[in-house]
């Protein structure tokens, strides 16, 4: 199966999920539970199992991770410096997430489509620092943007919870961050879990991509509110699909990565924003409605963008 055909199969799974949701084969509550299962159990298991099986993280993984995180930080600085003067508190962190987060499921599917199992082995060690950086930047953006509102509420005698405390709690309990740290530790130390544990992790991880892609499709919602958000969607998507990928590719080139590494840097940075961004926005006080519009619009825009990049 060619790269474009393999990627098309992943997007077809999302369309199947969208059709099943419209036909009410699975209720909205059921899809939310599927997504929660993937987020809290299946995908963390895939991360740990993939990192355990991947070759020890070497110089190539360090360079790829540096290129991706460097491009991500550049995109964050651009959006933050522009947005803090123009956007209200809850809107800004949601726009930030739309620009700097990426859908790991689609990134994995794209790496598999482009380079097969070898692509997954190259990408997995680099994803651990990227996942950690994405969550630090995202929760930090919420804390910075909403700190003033929390202080204002406290001054009026209303009970408030510090955005910084919420941010630290979110990072300390984030399953993807914890799985990345555990998997990277096992990868670097060469420790291997007992055979039974590894088999369970592999079985859980194997179910993560198809279920997650179905859930992503089921969550797609475009309507009148999306049109209202169109200026923010277009601006954020410009950073997401052009600025971050270009910066990551340039850094990968400057760091001496080969064609495969440069391709993975470009494709991973161009994956649409993560569906988990909606959960984070809701938990930390961001604009969850805007976040839902950004996720849906970017997921649809990602198809032609990734197909174009794969054909280069």
Give me some keywords for this one.
mainly alpha, 312 residues, Na+/H+ antiporter like fold, 82% helix, single chain
Topology of this structure?
Elements: H1 3-22, H2 28-53, H3 59-83, H4 91-100, H5 104-155, H6 163-173, H7 175-189, H8 195-218, H9 224-228, H10 230-254, H11 259-269, H12 276-284, H13 288-311
Helix pairs in contact: 1-5, 1-8, 1-13, 2-5, 2-7, 2-8, 3-4, 3-5, 3-10, 3-11, 4-5, 4-10, 4-13, 5-6, 5-7, 5-8, 5-11, 10-11, 10-13, 12-13
Description of the molecule:
The chain has 312 residues and is mainly α. The protein has a single domain (3-311), classed as Na+/H+ antiporter like fold, CATH 1.20.1530.20. It contains 13 helices and no strands. Residues 149-160 have low confidence and may be disordered.
- What is the SS-derived class? mainly alpha
Strand content: under 5%
Q: Identify the CATH class.
A: Mainly Alpha
Count every helix, treating DSSP H or I runs of 4 or more residues as helices: 13
The oligomeric status of these chains comes to single chain
Mind summarizing the main beta sheet?
none
The overall strand count is: 0
Please mark out the parts with pLDDT under 50 across 5 or more consecutive residues, or reply none: 149-160
CATH architecture term = Up-down Bundle
Count the domains: 1
Estimate the helix proportion, in percent. Answer: over 70%
The radius of gyration computed from the alpha-carbon positions, rounded to a whole number of angstroms, is 19 Å
What's the overall geometry?
Answer: globular
Name the average pLDDT.
89
The CATH topology is given as Na+/H+ antiporter like fold
């Amino acid at each position: 199966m060619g790269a474009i055909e393999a990627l098309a199969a992943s997007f077809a799974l999302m369309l199947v999920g969208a059709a099943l949701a419209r036909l009410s084969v699975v209720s909205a509550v059921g899809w939310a539970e599927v997504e929660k299962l993937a987020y809290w159990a299946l995908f963390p298991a895939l991360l740990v199992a993939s990192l355990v099986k991947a070759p020890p993280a070497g110089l190539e993984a360090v360079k790829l991770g540096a290129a991706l995180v460097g491009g991500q930080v550049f995109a964050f600085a651009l959006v933050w410096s522009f947005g803090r003067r123009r956007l209200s508190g809850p809107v800004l962190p949601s726009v930030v997430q739309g620009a700097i987060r990426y859908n790991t499921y689609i990134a994995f599917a794209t790496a598999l489509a482009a380079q097969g199992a070898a692509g997954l082995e190259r990408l997995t060690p680099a994803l651990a620092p990227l996942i950690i950086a994405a969550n630090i930047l995202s929760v930090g953006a919420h804390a910075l943007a909403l700190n003033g509102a929390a202080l204002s509420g406290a001054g009026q005698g209303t009970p408030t919870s510090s955005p910084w405390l919420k941010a630290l709690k979110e990072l300390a309990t984030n399953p993807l961050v914890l799985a990345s740290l555990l998997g990277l530790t096992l990868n670097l130390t060469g420790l291997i879990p007992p055979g039974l544990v590894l088999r369970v992790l592999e079985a859980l991880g194997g179910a993560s991509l198809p279920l997650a892609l179905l859930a992503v499709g089921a969550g797609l919602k475009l309507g009148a509110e999306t049109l209202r958000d169109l200026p923010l969607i277009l601006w954020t998507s410009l950073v997401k699909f052009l600025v971050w990928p270009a910066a990551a590719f340039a850094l990968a080139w400057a760091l001496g990565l080969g064609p495969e590494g440069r391709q993975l840097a470009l494709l991973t940075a161009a994956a649409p924003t993560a569906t988990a961004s909606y959960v984070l926005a809701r938990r930390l006080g961001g604009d969850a409605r805007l976040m839902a519009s950004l996720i849906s619009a970017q997921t649809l825009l990602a198809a032609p963008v990734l197909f174009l990049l794969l054909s280069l």
